[in-house]
Every structure is written in structure tokens, then in C-alpha cells.
Amino acid sequence: MYYEDRRLMVIKKVTRNIREIDADSVKSNPLSILFILFSLIVIYSANQFPDRGELGAGFFPIILSAAIIVFSIIDIITDDDTELEMSTYDLLPPAIIIGLLVGYVLLMSVAGFLLATMAILPVVLYYSGVRSKLKIGFISVVFPIVLFYVFSRIFMVRLPEGTIPVSRLLPHLPLGVI
Amino acid sequence: MVVEHILQGFANVMDPIILILMIAGILLGILMGSIPGMTATMTIAVMLSFTFTMEPANGMMLLLGIYGGAVYAGSIPAILIRTPGTPSAAATIFDGYPLSQNGEAGRAIRVSTVASFVGGIISVLVLMLFSPIVADAALRFRSPEFFALAVFGLTIIANVSGDSLPKGMISGLLGMLIATVGIDPVTSHQRFTFGIPELLTGVEFIAVMIGLFGIAEGLRKYSKGIGDEQDRVNQEIEGVFPSIADLKSIAPVSIGSGILGSLIGSIPGAGGDIAAFITYNEATRWLKDAVPAFGEGNIRGVAAAESGNNASTGGALIPTFTLGIPGDSVSAILIGALLVHNVQPGPELYQEETGLLYTIFVGFLLIYVFILIFGLLGANYWARLINIPESLIWPVIFVLCMIGAVALRGNVFDVWIMLAAGGLGYVMRLRGYPLAPMVLGLILAPIAEENLRRSLVLSNGSLDIFYTSPIVVIVLLLSAATIITPAVRAVRE
User: Fold this and answer.
1) Chain mean position to CA B161
2) I need a labelling partner for B342 at 20 to 30 A (CA). Which of A5, A18, B148, B372 fits?
3) Per DSSP, what are the bridge partners of residue B339?
4) What's residue B258's pLDDT?
5) Which long-range contacts (CB under 8 A, 24 or more apart) does A130-134 make?
């Protein structure tokens, strides 16, 4: 009896949800809509791939996109409140961090890894709430130098040098060959 | 034969560089595991770049050291401040925190250390004993079987990694779609490359992983507010060794949970968190009349959870090494680490790279021995690590993410990919999409696609090939059940 009732309720809820797919449920599932649109574009462009009578290059992307569309629709219909409580999330700080990181990448191609890191770390540290000048100074200077040595002198990984290769001025480690 | 391999592995591991890397990994793992919010997955993703130019065995020792260290250390804040350091330590809170409130934090941490050691060692032994058998059986697998396994891996992972199966599937499928970028392996046609030369070889999935687990997680932290008041630890933890009585009392439950945890870990998708909850639950079922009751500070509860979650580490490596199907998100990253060195996990690994494998096995055993030693000797110091403020850690992690993406191929394009993945991952996390399936999708897509298309070439385009092999039928049915069961359950409830 109990299960019957519950089942009926769920079926009712699902049908109601289907009937009520309107501006509201679309708005509450912005990513699902985005994924559906994205998949449609993928299907359209994958359809242009050459096809030699068998499964061509486009087959797999098309299947995957179709599946994304199916699951997105299911997701919209069964809208199950798995979204996090948005009010506890402030969107500004992550936007600022992304902005800082983009600036870091741009700076890195001009100033090189070492200087760019030394320039960006104090900003990010300060923004994160670190106020001790000693800590900010120590981390911003010592950490990039240590990383520089570890990567470019021990692991022989080429890090961006920038237009003025300041990092070449750092003395070599007396390591010999590792 | 096997004994020879083990001895050779032992000789390899005794290399001073390997030992240093191992210990460095463990200490770093303990550091990050102790700080709530820093997971093993994130640490390994971020530290991957350090291994690019290392020998595969050396790199794996660093990463496995982090893995073991972080899973172990997650229990320390769980016990002291009721916050798991890593998700897998969530079940440790039930009995660990009450013990700490009774002033027995030291006892709880010592028990947790021993149980972690027992669980870890058992899981590596299970890995050593059973994975060659699985690999042997998998040698007979052909394309249809591997296609079915890839599908199974994705469905089960999407099912267990979040509250919503559709969202998990979407995340996994998006990962697979990202993996189709680049030159098509069969027809050599360029897919979604938009004339960008860097995309010809595909999207660097390590950059995506670093973005998803490093950047996205960081952004989430910042949007919740960084620098908030953290719980601080002021307790002194005295003594080094657990008492004989405690050891006797936790021995059976540690061993049992170790075996069970290894088995659970070996199921694709079931990581340490699930293993710990199940082993804890089993312990409470078997030891109903325990005094004090479970949940009120019984050391056996701590032992069950900790042995279980550490045992999942070796278990997760079974499908990873033998089939190339990741057991959880950490093993997906470890597959990435091997692929960087052109080592392709799968049954052939057991034929071609036996030396590397046994070095990893013996090394992983040794890692748990070190964890036991460091855990017991340093408990008082590790507990202090919890007090390191996150505001100092995240800026450093961002720099490490950046260097990880740059160091991949020495080009800035991968950094943009990483940042884009980070942004996408952050938005998806906010909307309740789990990210682990996406990373697994990235790994599984090439396996699924190549084997699907190869199967159809073998069968001249007929789908018969998928239902003439019993293994394929069973695995595909299991995948279907994985998708359908939650739907049926939802309707029932």
C-alpha cells in the first residue's frame, strides 16, 4: 500500500515536472540547457566528418553527444535539487582568482616563470587574507626560487623564461649529474 | 618466479633516490591529508608535474607515497576536530572524535596508525596476489570485452560519485567527448581541432585533471570564503606505541576490514570513502555488544574505518594495472602518470613491465611500513599541521597547478586548457555535477572508442560480436543494471 502510494506520487511528480518544463525549470537548469546546445553543435559538426560507409570519425562523438542530451533531459525532468545552496557561495572571489591567474599566465610569457610568480604570489596571498609581511615576503621569494631550481635545474623542465631571462642569472647548483 | 620478481623489486626499491622520493611523498601526503579540504586526489594531480622527467618507478613511488600518506593522515583531523582531512576519513569521525573528547586522542591516532598500516599492507598483498591472475584472464580479452569494461567503468563511477546519476553520466560523457578532440586514431581525420596545432594530439588530459581537481577545488574554497576561523588543535598527544591490549582488541577487526576494504576498493568507482563506510558498518554488525558502543568512542570503530580506507588504495590499483580501467579518481591520475612515460596499463603490463610492477608493489609495501613508523613517532607533530591556515596553502597550490600545466609540454596552451577546465569544473560543482566521472571519461574514452570500432571491424559491422561472448554480455548487462537500478529504486521510494 505504502509503496503504491509513493510510486503514484513519484509518477505524478515526474509527469507534473514534464508538463511544467517551462521557463522556470529551464532557468533552474542552466547547465543542462547549455550541455544540450553544446551537444547539438557537436552533432552538427561531427556529422560533417568524412564517412566511408563504416563507423567514421564522427560516430563516437555523435553517440556521446546524443547520450548527453538524453541524460540532460532526464536531469531536467527529475530535477532533484542536487544543486548546492547558492546563497552560501560568493561568486566574486572565484572570479577575482581566475582573473589573477589569467594575469599570471599573461605575465609569465613576458616576464618568465620566476618573476611572474614572485609578482603574483603576494597579491594572491594578500587577497587570501594573509597579512603578515614576513610570511608574504618569504613565500613569494623563496618558493618560486625553490621551484625554479627543482624544475629547471634538477628535472630539466623548460619553464617560460620571458623576454628578459633573469632566471639565467641564478647560479647553478653544485649537483653534477643526477 | 614471483619470488624472484619480489626480490628484484626489493633491490630496486633500496635505491636511495627512490627511498627519498617515497619519504618525501609520504610526508607531503601526511601534510596535505592533515589539512581539511586538501584531498589525496588534488595533491597527486598537482604534484604530477614533478614526475614528468623521472623514471616511471621513481615517479610512482612519489605519487603512491602521497596517496598512502594522505589517506592515512585524513584520520588525524577527523579524530581531533571532527573534520575528515580527506573524504575517505569521514567514517573515522564516528568513534575517533568521541575518543578525542574523552581525552584519548593520542590513543585513537595510534590505533588509527596501526590499522592504516594493517589495511594498507593487506591491500598491497591482495594486489600482488590477485592482480596477476586478473591480468592473466584479461589477456584473453579482445576488443569487445575492453569496450564493455570501459562502459561498465563509466556507469558505475557515475553512479557512485554523486547524488544524481544523470549528472554523473553527463560529467563522464563530457569527459569522453573532450577526449575525442585530436586526430582520430582510425581514420586520421582531425576532430574539433579548429586549426590549432596544439590540439592535433588531443587535449592534454593531465592539464584537465589539474584544472578539475586543483583549480576548481580552489575556486570553490574561495567562493565559500577563505580564511574563515578554523578549528585549532591544542591537545598534546603523548606516548608513541599503542598498548598491547589495544592491539589485541583491534587485530581481528583490522584484518577483516583490510580484506573487505581491498575487495571494495577493487570495484571500479568505489574509493576509500565507500570502503570505510562499508567496513565500519560491517564492524558494527559483527560486534554488536561492543563496550563502549560504536559511535561512543570504541577504538575498534576507528580501526575498522581506517583499515578499510587504506585497504582501498591497493584494491583500486587492481583494475587500474590489470585492465587500464581506473578504480577511483586517484588511480585515474596514476594512469595519467604512467601514460606520460608511455607505459600503458593493461594486461600486457604484466608481461612487458614485470620489473616496474614489482618495484611498485614492494615500494607500496615499504610505504606503509614508513607510514607506521612516521605515524607513531610523529603523531604529536602531524596534529599541529591542522593549524596551517588554508590561506597560505591555496596560493601555493595555484602556482603548482600552473607549473604542472606548463611543464607538460612546455607550452602555455595547456595552461589555458587547465584554467578552462578549472572554471568549468567549478561551475559544474556548484550545480551538483561530480567531477570524478569526467576524469574517468577522459581515460576511458579512447579505450571505449578504439575497442568499439575495432570490434565492429572484426565483425564486419555486425553487432553480433557484442552478444556472442558471455563476458561482454554480463558486463554490459551489469552496466545497464547500474543505470536502471537507481531509477527503479527512485520510483519505488
Assistant:
1) 12
2) B148
3) none
4) 95
5) A130/B389, A130/B391, A130/B392
Task: Say yes or no: B170 contacts chain A, CB-CB below 8 A.
Answer: yes
pLDDT, mean of each 10-residue run, chain B (493 residues): 87 92 94 87 90 90 94 91 87 92 89 95 95 92 90 82 84 94 84 86 90 92 74 71 89 94 87 89 86 88 94 93 87 90 90 92 96 90 84 92 88 92 93 89 90 86 82 90 78 68
Residue pLDDT, tens place only, B127-175? 999 999 999 999 989 899 999 999 988 888 777 777 788 899 999 999 9
E runs forming strands in B161-268: 182-183, 190-191
Among residues 272-311 of chain B, which lie with CB inside 8 Å of chain A?
Answer: none
Give backbone dihedrals phi and psi of A124, rounded to 5 degrees, phi first. Answer: -65, -40
pLDDT of res. A176: 47
Rounded to whole angstroms, the Cα distance separating B69 from A144 reads 25
Contacts of B73 (CB under 8 A, 6+ apart): B29, B30, B31, B32, B33, B34, B85, B86, B382, B385
Q: Are B72 and B272 in contact (CB under 8 A)?
A: no
CA distance B318 to A111: 45
The cell for B249 is 582488541
* Disruptive mutation site among B54, B169, B180, B222 for chain A (greatest number of A CBs within 10 Å): B222
CA distance B76 to B405: 31
Number of residues that make up chain B: 493
Q: How does B427-438 read in b/e, with b if 16+ C-beta sit within 10 Å? A: bbbbbbbbbbbb
Report the SS3 class of residue B144: helix
* Chain B residues in contact with A144 (beta carbon < 8 A): 399
75-94 in B: which are within 8 Å (CB) of A?
A: none
Dist. CA B405–CA B211, nearest whole Å: 9
Residue-wise burial string across B325-338, b where 16 or more C-beta atoms lie within 10 A, e elsewhere: bbbbbbbbbbbbbb
| CA quadruple B190, B193, B197, B203: dihedral sign | negative
Confidence band of A31 (pLDDT split at 50, 70, 90): confident
Contact B173 A78 (CB under 8 A): no
The DSSP symbol for A158 reads: P
Interhelix angle B354-385/B299-323, rounded to 10 degrees, is 150
Q: Is the distance from CB of B430 to CB of B270 less than 8 angstroms?
A: no
Asked if B175 and B445 count as a contact pair (C-beta separation under 8 A), the reply is yes
Give the mean pLDDT of A142-161: 85
Q: What confidence tens digit (pLDDT) does each residue in B381-421 have?
A: 888 888 888 888 899 999 999 998 988 888 889 999 999 99
d(CA B43, CA B32): 7
By C-alpha distance, which of A21, A42, A56 is closest to B452?
A56
Contact B219 A97 (CB under 8 A): yes
B259 burial class (0-12, 13-18, 19+ CB within 10 angstroms)?
buried
Cell of B150: 570501459
Write out the H or E segment, with its range, that includes residue B143: helix B143-160
- Predicted complex ipTM: 0.85
